[in-house]
Structures are given as structure tokens and as C-alpha cells.
Design brief:
637 residues, alpha/beta, Rossmann fold, 2 domains, seven-stranded mixed β-sheet, 18 helices, binds coenzyme A, binds adenosine monophosphate, propionate-CoA ligase activity
Length: 637
């Protein structure tokens, strides 16, 4: 489609001319208990507030209203190659499951405004748990299963949950990973202690329960069901938090991204048809995890708000059992739209470069592939286009925004594709690119991508109980703008190019991680004098962390042994998801004369990119030393 055939430009212009009218119209797609007093209040919150005065319930909009009109339609299809099981839950059944679990939560003392941490594998009960919280106005905080006990403890201490929902185990490929020991350890480590834990017992591994604190999920639900207990939807303010989702910040302390109810519903519902081009009743699959923002927005809330069937897949793109797994799921469940991270497609391409397995499946109903979570490299996009012969759409967003900042809006008519660019800003986002002094750099020039305030509905209003940190992290550097901390440029056609982070965040297999927090772990080892962690190029995961450490003088331990211990330490303190497998001892770290470690130059050396010796360097020879060490280990590209 040419640029003039798409409705995008008209829709974006309409939003720009009248943002409040635009979002007031979009809000009509939501059922409100009480409509908003006004669409936007510029005087409230850190940068204004959407839909103040409105009263609503997100679970009602995602479940109950469809149970009434499309009760027999599948709401969630659980497909788990790792346990060889499948389950279809209709909207009517989902309503009953959610209302029952919500009643159990109420019996556990959970009330509106209380936090509930959810530490669960990819089973339907994770989504049911989220919706049950939404139903009673409790604020859920889902923690990804690949994090270690210490990370879970940090989140428990910050969120102070009344209760925790968890399961006996997760399953990673062929491995069963008991969750309960991690949960127990996290509660031991945390200063704050939850009142109660509800544990879903999976057949692959039984968890022992702590008396007086833990209860058996299935038994409690059965009891509530027998007693006919069902919780009704509790009215909440549109501006009340629906959830807190922790994401990597620039320190070891994660940021608790707050999401409200009303604005989030409006934004997600709008994206389902206008951006993803999906109709109610169609099958939408986000192959992610409920522990990430993609899981919140597009495994659970977005598709359900729109009356779609959501796929909840417990498996990997490869190895469960092979690189045809995604094609099987698409064909078997009639998926129209798949959303995943580019890394998943790199994994499939590596195993099955000619996509021979695709020939076994009929993908006739499949319409589009959406990629996000990391930069979609042109090779991967082209490969996906070639084999699937459907639009492959890169879109850019962040945990903070909750929905795409930029993308190619299939629902409005796709614009011409430029490989490597996530296309154009969505209505709601007025983007600019600024230099360090806060001046707009103009078209085609690199700088920090910013969003002119206010952020649209659905984006974070603040950080959980940390308004100052919110202002400092996102609003202070460029007054009047939200700082995305992504570097990039906007070209002459208005296409956005997102090239990398301006801070110490790296993206490993689409998972967002802080190198700063890894440095904190390395520095805690008694043999380490100083260290630097950088993200280095990886053909599968996009980037992987690589730690450079200088040992304290007088350390007698063998450097290889220290390196092994450091790898173990990051796994123990942050979790396997960090994929920290490269620790390298070096004699010295390259620094500027003022003592700043030259991480950027080290990264260029490791990635095999052209680099120049910074004028401010203290001792240029050290850069050659680093290059030699990397070469010696076969690590340069
Ligand atoms: N619970 C416990 N451990 C987990 C986990 C979980 N929920 N999720 C991941 N892990 C572990 C993995 O087993 C692995 O451990 P290992 O080092 O012992 O092998 C480690 O964390 C790293 O996991 P991952 O980055 O997923 O690597 P992988 O090698 O297992 O798989 C891909 C690589 C590319 C196949 C996989 O990352 C993938 O499918 N990614 C695309 C989809 C996606 O999740 N995107 C996220 C945002 S949209
Ligand atoms: P997360 O909060 O985990 O969603 O990670 C957000 C970060 O991932 C962004 O700030 C970007 O650095 C990166 N990212 C996500 N999607 C894209 C994309 N389509 N192109 C480039 N970078 C992306």
C-alpha cells in the first residue's frame, strides 16, 4: 500500500488537532460504570491525568461483558508442548474461574488497593490470577519466573503484597524448575512478609506448604466453588492502579511501572483494531510471557478487552519439540496474528534456515507477524517476510508505555516498509529527537528520542510510590518531554529509527536487563577490585552481557575459578534470564582521565566495529589489551 492509501496520516492529524476529542472517542469502546468528568486534567499527576472521575472495572470489560455476548467462544487457549497438554477456556468459563479465584483472594483478606505478587509459569492460572485481582480492585505485580529469589525479594519489599500467587514449578524445555524453594527463599530474604501464599500444584512437581502461610490453590478454589462463592466486579477509579510491573532501571533497584485502569483499557482496545488490524472473535497470539509487559498487554488484557481468543503458549520457538512449533500453533488454533520478539525468529532461522518445517502446516488464516522487544534486524525481518509471505511489522515500545510508540498500523492500512525502522509514531505520541543540550537535532540526525508531554492514555502515570524517581528518571532531563532513553533519529519521511539505549540497559533475547545491576553483583565478589559489564553482539539473542573484571592485587585464586564463580553469582542473584555466561579477567579497565570507564569503546571493540581512541583516555594501550584478550578468547566479531 502506498503512503497515500493508508488512513494513518489522516488519523494521526486528527489526533494532533484534537487529542482530547480523539481519546474521548476511543473511550466509547469501553463500558464505564461512571464516565469521566473530563477526558484529560492537565493539572493532576506528574504530567496530567486521563479520564479523571471515571469509574470502571477492567475485569468486567475483559471478561464479563464478553461472557454475556460470546460466552461459548474461547477466551484463552492454553497450549503447552512442554507438558503435552492443551486447554480451551470459554469466556463463560473464564468468568466463573476468575470470579471464584477472586472470592478466594477476598477470603484471604485481599481488598481493593492491596498488592498481590504473581510469580507463575505460563499456565492459564497466571492470567486468571491477574484478572481476579483486577476484578476486586487489587493491584497485581507479576514477576517473571526466570528471576532469582533475590530479585523476587526486592520486588516483594517494594510492592508489599498482602498475598502471593505462585505455582509448584515452571517448565523450561525438558527441565522442571521448582518455584517454591525460590519463593520461600525470597520471603526469607525480604524484610516485608506477605500474609498468605496460594500455591498451584502442578503434576510435574509437588510443593510443600508452610503452615499458617501457604494454601493449596486447587483446594481453596474447590472449597469456594462448593460454597457458591463468586466475587463481583469492584468499581475502581479509572486512575487507580491496575498493576505494577517492575522493569530494569539503571541501578540494582528495579522501577515499579504503574499502570492505571481506564487509560490502559482505552489505549489497548484502540490498538487491537487500528494498529494490529484484528477483529473481535479472531485468534491473537503474543508469544511472550506474562512476566513481561507484552504479556500483560497482549497475552491478557488487549485480546480479551477486544473479545479475541488469546493463546497462552508454554514452550519455546525451538526445541519444544522443533523449529516448527510456532507454525503448528498457528495452524492448529487458527491464529491470525502473531506477536513475538525478533530473537524467536533468529532461533527458528538458525535451526531451520529454509523453513522446511513450515511445509507441514496450513497457515492460510495467518495475516501478520508483529515484532518488538528489541531492534528488528533487517535480515531477520526479510527472512520472515520471505517464508511467511505476510506483512512483518516491527514496532517499538517500552514497559513504561504499555503499547506501541511507533509502528506500522496494519489496521489503518500499512505504510511502505523500511527494513530496520519501526515506521511512524502512533496517535498519542509526538516524537522529537534532542541533543544533549535539549535542542531538536532535526531530521536524519541521531539523538535521544523523546515524547512531548503529556504521554497518551495507557502510559505510566508514575513509578510505584516513587514519584520523585519518576520525575528524575523520565521528565527532568528534557523539561516538557518524556525521555525514552532510546537513541535514534527520524528520517525525511517521518520514519523513526531506534538504534539503541542511551543508558546501561541491554536487551538479551528480548528481555530487558540492567548492566549496572550485574556490575553490582560482580563487585560484591571478594576478589574483584573493579568491573564493567557491557552488552556484546550475539547472533541469537541480539545482545549478551559480558563482564570485564580486574582482580584485587594479592588475590591468589585462579582467575578462571573467579570467572566461574562470577557467572554463578549473577545466576544466583539476578537469575538465569540474565544469560550471563561471559566473565573475563583483564589487567586494567580503560578509563578517561576523570576515571569514567570507557564502556562504549569496549563495546565497539567487542562488536568488531570501527572505533577511535577517545581524546580523554588515560592510557590508550589498555584498549589494545582488551582487544587482545577478546581475540584470545575468540570473542571478537
Ligand atoms: N523460569 C525459569 N527459568 C527461565 C524462565 C522461566 N520462566 N525463562 C527463561 N529461563 C531460563 C532459561 O531456561 C535459560 O536458562 P539456561 O541458561 O539454564 O539455559 C535462561 O533463563 C535464559 O533464557 P532465554 O533468554 O529465554 O534463553 P533460551 O536459550 O532458553 O531461549 C530463545 C532463547 C530465543 C528461544 C527465547 O529467549 C525466546 O523464545 N525468546 C523470544 C520470546 C520472548 O520471550 N520474548 C520476550 C519479550 S516479547
Ligand atoms: P521493554 O521495556 O522490555 O519492552 O524494553 C524496551 C526497550 O526495548 C526499548 O527502550 C528499546 O530499547 C527496545 N526495543 C523494544 N522494541 C524495539 C524495537 N522495535 N526497535 C528497537 N528497539 C526496541
Amino acid at each position: 500500500m502506498s503512503s497515500t492509501q493508508s488512513r494513518y496520516h489522516g488519523v494521526y492529524a486528527r489526533w494532533k488537532a484534537d487529542p482530547e476529542g480523539f481519546w474521548a472517542d476511543a473511550a466509547r469502546a469501553i463500558d464505564w460504570i461512571k464516565p469521566a468528568d473530563k477526558t484529560f486534567d492537565p493539572t493532576a499527576g506528574a504530567y496530567g491525568q486521563w479520564f479523571p472521575g471515571a469509574v470502571c472495572n477492567t475485569c468486567y470489560n475483559a471478561v464479563d461483558r464478553h461472557a454475556a455476548t460470546r460466552g461459548d467462544q474461547a477466551a484463552i487457549v492454553y497450549d503447552s508442548p512442554v507438558t503435552n497438554s492443551k486447554r480451551t477456556i470459554s469466556y463463560a468459563e473464564l468468568k466463573d474461574e476468575v470470579a471464584t479465584l477472586a472470592a478466594v483472594l477476598q477470603d484471604m483478606g485481599v481488598q481493593k488497593g492491596d498488592r498481590v505478587v504473581i510469580y507463575m509459569p505460563m499456565i492459564p492460572e497466571a492470567a486468571i490470577g491477574m484478572l481476579a485481582c483486577a476484578r476486586i480492585g487489587a493491584i497485581h505485580s507479576v514477576v517473571f519466573g526466570g528471576f532469582a529469589a533475590k530479585e523476587l525479594a526486592t520486588r516483594i519489599d517494594d510492592a508489599k503484597p498482602k498475598a502471593i500467587l505462585s505455582a509448584s514449578c515452571g517448565i523450561e524445555g525438558a527441565r522442571v524448575i521448582p518455584y517454591k524453594p525460590l519463593l520461600n527463599e525470597a520471603i526469607t530474604l525480604s524484610a516485608y512478609k506477605p500474609d498468605a501464599c496460594l500455591i498451584y500444584q502442578r503434576p510435574q512437581c509437588a510443593a510443600s506448604l508452610v503452615e499458617g502461610r501457604d494454601a493449596d490453590w486447587q483446594a481453596e478454589v474447590a472449597k469456594a466453588r462448593q460454597a457458591g462463592r463468586r466475587a463481583e466486579c469492584v468499581p475502581v477509579a479509572s486512575t487507580d492502579p491496575l498493576y505494577v510491573l517492575y522493569t530494569s532501571g539503571t541501578t540494582g533497584k528495579p522501577k515499579g511501572v504503574v499502570r492505571d485502569n481506564g487509560g490502559y483499557m482505552v489505549a489497548l482496545k484502540w490498538t487491537m483494531d487500528h494498529f494490529y488490524g484484528v477483529e473481535p472473535g479472531e485468534v491473537f497470539w503474543a508469544a511472550s510471557d506474562v512476566g513481561w509487559v507484552v504479556g500483560h498487554s497482549y497475552i491478557v488484557y488487549g485480546p480479551l478487552l477486544h473479545g479475541c481468543t488469546a493463546i497462552l503458549y508454554e514452550g519455546k520457538p525451538v526445541g519444544t519439540p522443533d523449529a516448527g512449533a510456532y507454525w503448528r500453533v498457528i495452524a492448529e488454533h487458527g491464529v491470525t496474528t502473531l506477536f513475538t520478539a525478533p530473537t524467536a525468529f533468529r532461533a527458528i532461522k538458525k535451526e531451520d534456515p529454509d523453513a522446511a518445517l513450515l511445509k507441514h502446516y496450513d497457515l492460510k488464516g495467518f495475516r501478520a507477524l508483529f515484532l518488538a522487544g528489541e531492534r528488528a534486524d533487517p535480515d531477520t525481518v526479510k527472512w520472515a517476510e520471505d517464508i511467511l509471505k505476510v506483512p512483518v511489522i516491527d514496532h517499538w515500545w517500552q514497559t513504561e508505555t504499555g503499547w506501541p510508540v511507533a509502528g506500522n498500523p496494519l489496521g489503518l492500512g500499512a505504510l511502505p516498509v523500511k527494513h530496520g525502522s519501526p515506521t511512524v509514531p502512533m496517535p498519542g505520541y509526538a516524537l522529537d529527537v534532542l541533543d544533549e543540550g535539549g535542542q531538536s537535532v532535526g531530521r536524519g540526525k541521531m539523538g535521544t528520542i523523546v515524547v512531548k508531554l503529556p504521554l497518551p492514555p495507557g502510559c505510566l502515570p508514575t513509578l510505584w510510590q516513587a514519584e520523585d524517581r519518576f520525575r528524575e528518571s523520565y521528565l527532568a532531563t528534557y523539561p516538557g518531554y518524556y525521555n525514552t532513553s532510546d537513541a535514534g533519529y527520524i528520517d525525511d519521511d517521518g520514519y523513526v529509527w531506534v538504534m539503541g539505549r542511551t543508558d546501561d540497559i541491554i536487551n538479551v533475547a528480548g528481555h530487558r536487563l540492567s548492566t549496572g545491576s550485574m556490575e553490582e553483583v560482580l563487585a560484591s565478589h571478594p576478589a574483584v577490585a573493579e568491573c564493567a559489564v557491557i552488552g556484546v553482539k550475539d547472533s541469537l539473542k541480539g545482545e549478551v552481557p559480558c563482564g570485564f573484571v580486574v582482580l584485587k592485587s594479592g588475590v591468589r585464586q585462579n582467575p578462571e575459578e573467579v570467572e566461574k564463580e562470577l557467572i554463578g553469582l549473577v545466576r544466583e542473584k539476578i537469575g538465569p534470564v540474565a544469560a550471563f555466561k561471559l566473565a573475563i579477567t583483564v589487567p586494567r579497565l580503560p578509563k578517561t582521565r576523570s576515571g569514567k570507564i570507557l564502556r562504549g569503546t569496549m563495546k565497539k571493540i567487542a562488536d568488531g566495529e570501527a572505533w577511535t581512541t577517545p581524546a580523554t583516555i588515560d592510557d590508550p594501550v589498555i584498549l589494545d589489551e582488551i582487544g587482545d584478550v577478546l581475540k584470545g578468547r575468540g570473542l571478537t566479531h
